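Dig into these lines:

——
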Amino acid sequence: MSENYVSAGVGLQGFRAFLNGLCPGKAQFTEKDYPKLDGKVVIVTGASAGLGYEVSKLLLGTTNAKVYMFTRNKQKTIDAIKRLETEVAKEFNKTNLNVDYISIDFADLTTIKPAAEEFLSKSDRLDIIIHNAGVMLPPEGSVTKQGFELQLGTNNFGPHLLQKFLDPLLIKTSKSNKPGESRIIWVSSFGHYLSSKGGVFYADPNFRKTKASAASKYAQSKAINVLQAKGWNNAHPDGSNIISVSLCPGFLTTELTRYASSIEAFVSGLMSHPPRNGAYTELFAALSPEISTRDHIQSFGKVTRSRQDLEDPIAISKAWNFLESNVRSYL
């Protein structure tokens, strides 16, 4: 019989983060502040809708970076690129977008290697990757193709595996960049405050025997995103020029709430902000000179820290080893 799932609790720090989510103020680091990124290559996962779409639009409209959209649905992405062409031309007076897409399904680990290989055949550099794709509050019993709890598999194992395939090129590129220009952005959430102590419910991480809410499972996946951000630099001493950082984009109205009940969606809508604001948070993490590798970013571009127990080196190392062991057979 499995142990009972217990949240570590929000605490004073989490309460302050919640208040920031409700009343974050205006973003200070926006389009006017972005570097031109001439010759740079940026990957945005989950880029065909919501937050990832807005991040892609800002990058394509205000910088000269080549943007690769890593997405699951080919037709949806083709349609998204057509919308981007229209909207970027209207908002930023810019045409001939430097954009491409790669097909990937983070809920099926067998698609990760082919996607990485396709990207590596097209690009000889990688400067920034924004792990934006994710799923939240799916129906009870939802699992990935490999049988992992859907949020754990999609939000953690898939991105972790993709990053492993891309690490050599990212590290190589970072050697010719200024310190901190190369970055890995792990999109977490305020939800990480609701996870169990240490972030991962090791007694039953897939919740096969343990009763827990979808929100608790989501909280675990977002805590792991925080641990991934901290663990990456520990595991890659040759990536010292690279900043790996986690963030909460803010309380936003996006497609992530598609599985929410009508009441949950209504309450969420009262507290939520447009996706553009969350894009400002992500691009603050990706582009601002203020960022260091141990930071956690909150809406809409404020430097803070994650929950204290997720800063513990033992917790970080244990989570990293857990991730490594679950993706090893898909390398």
Remarks:
- Confidence is low (pLDDT under 50) at residues 262-267.
- The radius of gyration is 18 Å.
- The domain at 11-330 is CATH 3.40.50.720 (Rossmann fold).
